Amino acid sequence: MAVHKLVLDDVEEALYTLIAIHCTIEDYRLAYLLNKHLGINLVRKPRDLDFNKDKSAYSIFEWKDDKQLTTWSLVSNICKNHEALPQNNQQSLFNTQDQITKTFNLIPEHKGVNYFLKIDNGNNFSKEAYILNNILGIPQVATAFSVDVNQLKSKDNLIFN
User: According to the lineage, what is the superkingdom (predicted)?
Assistant: First the structure.
């Protein structure tokens, strides 16, 4: 019987640039500042990214530039959920509900990063340094840097479509 072997060396990975952004402002405010400083038009998507079976949801803003055939996505890296602790059957003077805050990360390898800007382009994207300098020029941004996507273990979380 003949043995058939499939070779998957010709599979291309999607080409995109990933920029990590450290800042303490809200997602909508950062999207506004990026729109202003980069000349783009990020808009909040109607549905958040939902992971871990409804335990964590991450806000996402997106803009499709049809002229340059580029998709820009701003996604939050941090999700904080408040969960109620199980109540004891003890009687107490004050009937309070204790809560615990759980923090989830979209990309666990970069827990300190607040947001990721993903620039998805089928071609080689050559404006990365220019975009990074413009983001660093925003006063509310503490720092921003490029992320090597090939080094990420959880890069599958960056597939938004």
Answer: Bacteria
The identity of residue 112, as a single letter, is G
- Domains assigned to the chain: 16-86+95-151 (3.30.310)
In three-state form (DSSP H/G/I as H, E/B as E, the rest C), the secondary structure along the chain is: CCCCCCCCCCCCCCCEEEEEEEECCCHHHHHHHHHHHHCCCCEECCCCEEECCCCEEECEEEEEECCCCEEEEEEECEEEEEEECCCCCCCCCCCCCCEEEEEEECCHHHCCCCEEEEEEECCCCCCHHHHHHHHHCCCCEEEEEEECHHHCCCHHHHCCC
pLDDT, tens digit (0-9, with 9 covering 90-100), for 100-149: 788 888 899 999 999 999 998 866 667 888 999 999 999 999 999 999 98
The whole-number pLDDT of residue 8 equals 59
Where does the pLDDT of residue 10 fall: very low under 50, low under 70, confident under 90, or very high at 90 and above?
very low
Residue 11: what pLDDT? 47
CB atoms within 10 A of CB 58: 21
Q: Is the pTM above the cut of 0.85?
A: no
